[in-house]
Amino acid sequence: MSANWIECSYYIEATTGLEAAAAELVGEQTSGTFIKVPGESDALAERFGGHILTIKRFEEQQPSLRSRFHAPTVEAGIIRVAYPVGNFGTDLTTLLTTIAGNLYELGHLTACRLVDVDIPEEFSEHHAGPEFGIQGTRASVDVADRPLIGTIIKPNIGLLEDEFRMTVRNLLDSGVDFLKDDEINANPAHLPFDRRVEIVCDETDRAADKHGRSVPYAFNVAGPLHELERKHDLVLERGGQCVMLPVFYQGVSAVEYLRSLGGLQIHAHRAGFAAVSRSSAVGIDFTVWQKVLQLAGADHIHASGLQSKFYETDDEVASNIKSIQAGVSAHLAPSLPVLSSGQTVFAAQPTLDKVGSTDVMMLAGGGIIGHPLGASAGVSSLRRAWEAASNGIDLATYGRQLDTKGDHSLSSAIDKFGDKR
After folding, report:
1. Listed residue (335, 331, 325, 330) closest to 296, CA to CA
2. Are 189 and 214 in contact (CB under 8 A)?
3. pTM, two decimal places
4. In this model, does residue 1 exceed pLDDT 70?
């Protein structure tokens, strides 16, 4: 792959032939439009236009999406195209606008999904990437080789000051590795961002003195762009370690801006991403999305979870996780995959089987806070589940073995969450 081109693969369906549809797509996203205009010379098109590299044909099928152009059947296939880097330089927002912009609007396409993007090393070198990533996050909590176990504050919104403080305190005392705001809890009137920072940092300081370890808390800094720096600086000055963004709505540039400020882990929540990923006929594959987030500087990226309450299959989530762990560039540290969405003790073995790595952060809200023996037992149960998986021991068998030693955390979790699967 040339350093001067970024190559993309799309699944498309077309009411015209695939060649004509591919030409329309690359023209729309580069130097062309629906007719040739004055100044659109062959030399200009050669330098600034997109190039069609390959076309892989599938069987004709019925259209997946509605359009003003009707056809009983359409041609389908994978097209691979290249865009000149000079069109967008190193800017990630313009890159996304080019490779995933107006092409979805084209009427002759009854399906259009960006399934992959190849990023040249020379392009990656212009981006900071994660400041902490997998190893830096592990170092911050002194966890070398097992999964990080964390949780979201639950109830996710509505807790008043005293209730919130005690919830944070109890979770910090539970042995958890990581805490975070929910994505919908940013700056509510009943517990504003600034006050939440003060409460959490008071409690993390207290817990560090008590337990000898400072647990990161991801503060949700979502909101007006002009407030990002102030919120970042408040967290940093108060001794916090992490900030969180709902990156799909806040934007890739917001991640880049936080990364430029430095000093804090950036936790990238994927809320809303399914709007452009759930349909196989349209949108952006997670593989593409996480590559851009890693370039922008996200240290942790939500990948959904195996055995979860959300729509992706375990194989799809495992692919998400492995794509994050692979990194985006040889010179950038990879981000840490985050597992969430209904995680319990039943997710450890399938995750290890399909991913083959413990380089993950497992966030379990109900799986920890909803444990019948309390949050400490919830944290313990998840660690025991990963121990069972790592040592090739059946989950229920390991639960019974621990029961004989007076540790009922795992068996209680099996009983509690078994009917929720």
Report:
1. 335
2. no
3. 0.95
4. no
The CB-side HSE value for 351 (13 A sphere, CA atoms) comes to: 33
Per CATH, the number for 5-124 is 3.30.70.150
133-420, what's its fold?
Answer: TIM Barrel (3.20.20)
Domain spans, the chain = 5-124, 133-420
Which tens digit of pLDDT belongs to each residue from 296-323?
999 999 999 999 999 999 999 999 999 9
Q: How far apart are CA 272 and CA 250, in angstroms?
A: 11
- Is there a common fold for 5-124 and 133-420? no
Which pLDDT band, with edges at 50, 70 and 90, does 31 fall under?
Answer: confident
H or E element: which one contains 11? Answer: strand 5-14
Q: Within 10 Å of residue 131's Cβ, how many Cβ atoms?
A: 17
Cα-trace Rg, the chain:
24
317 Cα distance to chain centroid:
11
Beta strands in 125-258 (DSSP E): 148-152, 178-180, 217-220, 242-246
Contacts of 214 by beta carbon, 8 Å cutoff, 6+ apart? 140, 204, 207, 208, 239, 241
